[in-house]
Design goal:
The protein is an alpha+beta fold. The chain folds into two domains: 76 residues, Nucleic acid-binding proteins (OB fold (Dihydrolipoamide Acetyltransferase, E2P), Beta Barrel); 162 residues, Recombination protein O, C-terminal domain (de novo design (two linked rop proteins)). The chain is built from eight helices and eight strands. The protein has a five-stranded mixed barrel. Strand 6 and strand 7 form a beta hairpin. Helix 3 runs antiparallel to helix 4, helix 4 runs parallel beside helix 7 and helix 5 packs across helix 7. It is elongated, with a radius of gyration of 20 Å.
């Protein structure tokens, strides 16, 4: 049977037997992969530490009948330790890899791989607030999957202007005529922050108030979970921006 190589981000692992693991990965060229890493739970394993969640590796795989087998793994990005040492980074990283794991096979593109690698690298380096990195990742991941939220003109009717209502089910910011009764109203600062998170304008993101950051985080979480059609369980453990300032 043929072998192949690819760059991967480890999303999660499961124990298999006494010494093996099933590793779920997002790869650069082959979409999502599930493969067996034999013997990696033994202390003598040569590459077990390279196949932990949040790690980026160059792997060689052998095509099996049901599950492929990981033959080699070389580290490309050792982000796990720096992420695990900080609770806010750790919980945000879990939410990111859980989101990546929810992607359909058709959505698991090279762009999704590169986005996740960049997000994990930013978390490991502590370049920005962990929740902001997560929020930016969620918005961009949704956009790459074809679900970019409307943050300017009305997401439903296309009406131009400044609108102040966000409805996840209708695709983002909507005008007063399209907004259902009781929909969440959003101030201009929060709309601007959503736009900056989408565009990667980190100076504006880092300067945002805790109130705007918390409001944006809530809207982004609702939007992502609506389109994924299931809750992102890890989000319940992620501290809000206001909690992070205490």
């Amino acid at each position: 049977m043929p072998t192949y190589r690819d760059e991967v981000v480890v999303l999660r692992t499961h124990k298999l037997g006494e010494a093996d693991r099933i590793v779920t990965m997002l790869s650069r060229r082959h979409g999502k992969l599930r493969a067996v890493a034999k013997g990696v739970r033994r202390t003598s394993s040569r590459f077990g530490a390279r196949l932990e969640p949040f790690m980026v590796a160059d792997v060689q795989l052998y095509q099996g009948r049901s599950l492929d087998i990981i033959q080699q793994a070389e580290s490309l990005g050792s982000y796990g330790a720096d992420i695990a040492a900080h609770y806010d980074r750790y919980t945000s990283a879990h939410a990111m890899v859980e989101t990546a794991d929810r992607l359909n096979e058709a959505e698991a593109t090279p762009q999704q791989y590169l986005l996740l690698v960049g997000g994990l690298r930013a978390l490991a380096r502590g370049e920005h607030a962990s929740r902001s990195v997560l929020d930016s990742y969620l918005l961009r991941a949704m956009a790459l999957s074809g679900w970019a939220p409307g943050l300017g003109e009305c997401a439903r009717c296309g009406r131009a202007g400044t609108h102040d209502t966000f409805v996840a089910q209708q695709g983002g910011i909507v005008c007063s005529d399209c907004a259902p009764t009781g929909a969440a109203r959003v101030d201009r600062a929060t709309v601007g922050l959503l736009q900056s998170l989408m565009a990667g304008e980190w100076e504006r993101v880092d300067a945002a108030t805790a109130a705007s950051s918390a409001a944006a985080s809530g809207l982004i979480a609702a939007y992502a979970q609506w389109h994924l059609e299931r809750g992102i369980r890890s989000l319940s453990h992620v501290a809000s921006p206001q909690e992070g300032t205490r």
